[in-house]
Design a protein that fits this description.
36 strands, 715 residues, alpha+beta, elongated, four-stranded antiparallel sheet, Lipocalin
C-alpha cells in the first residue's frame, strides 16, 4: 500500500527516498543469501520449492494473520497486537541480523582451484571402472592384423594396471568401434564380429565368441541378420542386442560354442545403434541400458513365455523393471555405492547401490538398486534433482575423503560440483574444460596420500574420426588435472560462530528497545529494511520463480480487493501505523518530520468534499502531506522474485533476469507514484508485482526462453 499527499514536485524527494529503500531492502536480501544457501535453509525443503500446495499454505497464513489483527483491533486488544508482532519482529530480525553479521565478519572465501598439468593420450576412452579406474583401448596394425590393446588405467598413474591385446578380427569392419559392457567382475567387449569377456582383476580373457560363422564356401556369415551391436556375458549365457533392437540369449559352453535360446524385442524407444550412451551388467539377471532418449533395466530371462503379441514382429517384449525418458537426451550414467546410505560401505555387503543418470537439460534421475531386497529397484527421490543445471555432462559417485560414505560429483556445462553425503550440500565447485563428452573424477597419487590432498581429473574425450582420405584418425582424450585440498571446500551447513551470533542478537535487541521507547521513522525504517530483507531471502530461496509469480498474482488480486472493495486493508494499515509497528517504510519530506506525533486516521480526507460527485477517494495511507508510507509487502513480493531468480536460474542468465525483474518492479513503482502523486490512492501490489513479473518474462525471453517457466511444478 502506498500514498502521498500534496504537490507532486514537493513529494519527489520522498518518492526517490522510498525507491532507495525499496532497492536497499532487496540488495540486503541478496547480500545475505549465500548464508542461507550454505545452510540449506529452504522453508519446505528442496522438494517443496516446486510444490504448489505450499504457496497455498502461505496465502492461508496471510489471511489468518490479517483476520486475527482485525479481530483483536475490533475488540480493543491493541496490546496483544503490539507485543505479539514485536515478538515476531524480533525473530525476523534475528533471521536477518545473524546472517548479516556472519557475512560481514566471517571470511569463508576459498582457495581457487587451478589445473597444473594437461596430458593427451592417444587411445579411445571406453568406460569408467569403479570410482578411480577406467578402461581405454589402443588400436594398432601388427603384421596385417588389427589388434585392440585394452588397458585398465588408474587416474593419476601413467602405467596401466594391466593390458590385454585382443584381435580386432579380419572379418570386422576396420572402423568399427568397441562397445563395452562392464559387470561386477568382468567386462564384455564387442566389435561387431568378436565378443571378448575380460576379467577386471587381471585382464585375463575369460571367453571369446563369434558373431559370425563360416558357410560351406568359407565365407563369413553373421549369426544374426542385423549384426551384433552390444553383448553382455553372464555365468551361463551371452546376451546380444542386434541392430533391430532385439535381445537374443545364447547358452554358452567353455569351448566357445553357443546355442540360440530365445529372442525378445526391446522397447521401440530403446535404440542402440549410434545412440547408445552406456550399458552395464548389474548382475546375472539385470542389464542397465541407456540410449539417447530412453533408459531402463532389462530383466534377463532364460526363456520366453511363447506369447507373441501383435505389433512386436513376433517377438515377446522384454520385461523392463524400471525406465525413464528424456526429450533432451541422456548424457551420462554411473552405478556405485549410494551417497544416501545410512552406513559406510565397508560395514555393509555392498547392497545399497545407486544408479544415477544425467540429462542434457540438467536433470538428475536416480534409482536405488538393492539385489537382496524384495523390491530390487526403486526411484531414489532424495538424489533425483530436477533442473540441477542447464546441462549435465557427467555424473560420478565418489568418496573424496575415504570415509566410506560416497558423494555425488556432477559435471555441468562449465564446472564440477560435489554434493556432499546424504545431505547433498554443495561443498566444492571446480571449473571443467569445455567438451561435449567428458569424464570427471577424483584420484589419489602417492604424493596425495602424503600431503593429504587429492587430484581432480577432467578428461575431454575426442572420438574416432575419418579424414578426407577415408582413413581413420585414432581417438584420444585430453586429461587436465590439479590438486584439490581442504581450503577449496565451501562451508557447508548452518554456519554459527560465537561473535557474529552475539552481535546479531544484541543488535536485534537494541533495535527492539529503540522501537519500543523511541519509534521514530528512522528506527522504523531500519527495522523495516532488515525485516523485509530477511523475509525476502527466506521465501525467495524457498520457491522456484513460477510459484513465486503465482503467489504474487494471488497477493495482488487480494490487495486490490482489500483496498478498493472490502477496505479492510485500510483498517489494518491504520492499526499498524498507530501502534508504530515497522511493517512499513517511511520517507519523510522534511527533516523535522516526526512519525511519533502522527495519529491521523487513514480514512480521513484532507479537505471537506464540496459535493457527493467531488468526494475524493480514500487514501491507502494518508497520514499527512509530510511523508510517504509503503507497506513492507510492496517490497517483499517483488524482492522474492528477484531472489528466486538468482537462486534457481543458473549463471549469467539468472543475473540478467534478476536485474530485469528489479527494473520492472521499479517501473511499476514509478507508475504507482504517478497516480499517487496525483492524489489517486492505489493498491501497491498490482503495479509492483505486475512490473516485476513483466521484467522477469522479458529477461527470460532474452536468455533462456520458455525454460523460465519450467521448474517441474507439482501439487
Amino acid at each position: 500500500m502506498s500514498d502521498v499527499g500534496g504537490d507532486f514536485r514537493r513529494q519527489l524527494p520522498s518518492m526517490i527516498g522510498m525507491a532507495g529503500m525499496f532497492v536497499a531492502t532487496i540488495l540486503l536480501a541478496i547480500f545475505i543469501r549465500p548464508w542461507y544457501d550454505k545452510a540449506g535453509l529452504q522453508a519446505f525443503g528442496e522438494a517443496g520449492a516446486s510444490q504448489l500446495r505450499y504457496i497455498g499454505l502461505e496465502l492461508i497464513m496471510i489471511f489468518i494473520f490479517t483476520a486475527a489483527i482485525l479481530m483483536l483491533a475490533k475488540y480493543k486488544k491493541e496490546w496483544v497486537i503490539k507485543y505479539g508482532i514485536m515478538g515476531i519482529l524480533f525473530i525476523a530480525l534475528l533471521y536477518a541480523n545473524v546472517p548479516l553479521a556472519h557475512q560481514i565478519m566471517v571470511d569463508d572465501s576459498v582457495t581457487p582451484f587451478e589445473y597444473d598439468s594437461v596430458d593427451e593420450t592417444n587411445a579411445t576412452y571406453l568406460t569408467e571402472i569403479g570410482m578411480d579406474q577406467y578402461l581405454d583401448s589402443i588400436r594398432s596394425n601388427e603384421g596385417e592384423e588389427l589388434v585392440n590393446t585394452i588397458r585398465l588405467m588408474q587416474w593419476g598413474s601413467e602405467e596401466p594396471l594391466w593390458t590385454t591385446a585382443v584381435a580386432h578380427g579380419n572379418v570386422t569392419y576396420e572402423f568399427s568401434e568397441l562397445v563395452v559392457v562392464p559387470g561386477p567382475t568382468s567386462v564384455t567387449i564387442n566389435n561387431g564380429a568378436l565378443i571378448y569377456t575380460l576379467s577386471l582383476s587381471d585382464g585375463t580373457v575369460e571367453s571369446t565368441y563369434n558373431c559370425f560363422e563360416f558357410n560351406s564356401q568359407g565365407d563369413a556369415v553373421p549369426i544374426m541378420e542385423t549384426g551384433c551391436i552390444l553383448a553382455a556375458k553372464t555365468d551361463d549365457a551371452l546376451y546380444i542386442v542386434d541392430a533391430a533392437d532385439r535381445l537374443h540369449r545364447y547358452n554358452t559352453f567353455d569351448n566357445g560354442v553357443m546355442t540360440k535360446q530365445a529372442t525378445w524385442q526391446l522397447p521401440s524407444e530403446l535404440k542402440v545403434v549410434d545412440v547408445l550412451v552406456e550399458a552395464e551388467l548389474l548382475d546375472d539377471t539385470h542389464l542397465l541400458m541407456v540410449s539417447e532418449n530412453y533408459a531402463g533395466v532389462v530383466l534377463l530371462n532364460e526363456t520366453t513365455s511363447g506369447i507373441n503379441p501383435a505389433g512386436q514382429d513376433d517377438y515377446e517384449p522384454v520385461q523392463m523393471l524400471i525406465d525413464a525418458e528424456s526429450e533432451a537426451g541422456f548424457s551420462s550414467l554411473d552405478v556405485g555405492y549410494s551417497n544416501v546410505a545410512d552406513v559406510a560401505m565397508q560395514n555393509t555387503t555392498g547392497e545399497e547401490q545407486l544408479i544415477v543418470l544425467g540429462t542434457n537439460d540438467g536433470d538428475v534421475i536416480s534409482w536405488a538398486y538393492s539385489p537382496s531386497e524384495s523390491e530390487v529397484f526403486a526411484e531414489e527421490s532424495r538424489v533425483s534433482i530436477n533442473t540441477f543445471a542447464n546441462e549435465i555432462r557427467d555424473v560420478r559417485l565418489t568418496d573424496i575423503d575415504a570415509s566410506g560414505y560416497t558423494e555425488l560429483l556432477i559435471t555441468t556445462g562449465k564446472d564440477a560440483r560435489l554434493l556432499y553425503g546424504s545431505s547433498m550440500v554443495q561443498r566444492l565447485v571446480l571449473d571443467v574444460p569445455e567438451g561435449l563428452d567428458v569424464a570427471v573424477t577424483f584420484g589419489e597419487t602417492l604424493q596425495d596420500v602424503e600431503d593429504e590432498t587429492i587430484h581432480l581429473y577432467a578428461a575431454v574425450l575426442n572420438p574416432n574420426t575419418i579424414d578426407e582420405n577415408a582413413e581413420m584418425v585414432n581417438a584420444s582424450y585430453t586429461t587436465s588435472s590439479g590438486i584439490v585440498d581442504s581450503s577449496m571446500f565451501l562451508v557447508g551447513g548452518i554456519v554459527i560462530e560465537e561473535i557474529p551470533l552475539i552481535l546479531g542478537v544484541l543488535f536485534s535487541l537494541l533495535l527492539m528497545i529503540l522501537l519500543y521507547v523511541h519509534s521514530e521513522w528512522y528506527v522504523v525504517n531500519t527495522v523495516g529494511i532488515l525485516v523485509g530483507g530477511g523475509v525476502i531471502v527466506m521465501l525467495g530461496v524457498s520457491f522456484v520463480p513460477t510459484l513465486i509469480m503465482v503467489f504474487m498474482i494471488a497477493a495482488a488480486i487480494y490487495d486490490a480487493w482489500a483496498v478498493y472493495k472490502s477496505k479492510h486493508m485500510l483498517d489494518l494499515a491504520e492499526t499498524m501505523v498507530n501502534l508504530n509497528l515497522p511493517i512499513l517504510l517511511v520517507a519523510p519530506q522534511d527533516s523535522d518530520y516526526s512519525l511519533r506525533s502522527e495519529r491521523t486516521s487513514l480514512h480521513e480526507v484532507e479537505e471537506p468534499p464540496k459535493t457527493d460527485s467531488e468526494m475524493p477517494r480514500e487514501r491507502v495511507v494518508a497520514k499527512s502531506n509530510d511523508a510517504m508510507l509503503m507497506g513492507l509487502g510492496d517490497v517483499i513480493f517483488p524482492g522474492m522474485l528477484v531472489l528466486s531468480t538468482l537462486q534457481f536460474v543458473e549463471g549469467d542468465a539468472g543475473v540478467l533476469m534478476a536485474i530485469t525483474t528489479l527494473v520492472g518492479s521499479l517501473i511499476g513503482y514509478s507508475v504507482l507514484m504517478y497516480f499517487v502523486g496525483k492524489g489517486q490512492a492505489q493498491a501497491g501490489l498490482p503495479l509492483l508485482n505486475g512490473g516485476a513479473i513483466l521484467g522477469y518474462i522479458i529477461g527470460g525471453l532474452l536468455t533462456i526462453g520458455i525454460a523460465m517457466f519450467q521448474f517441474n511444478i507439482s501439487f
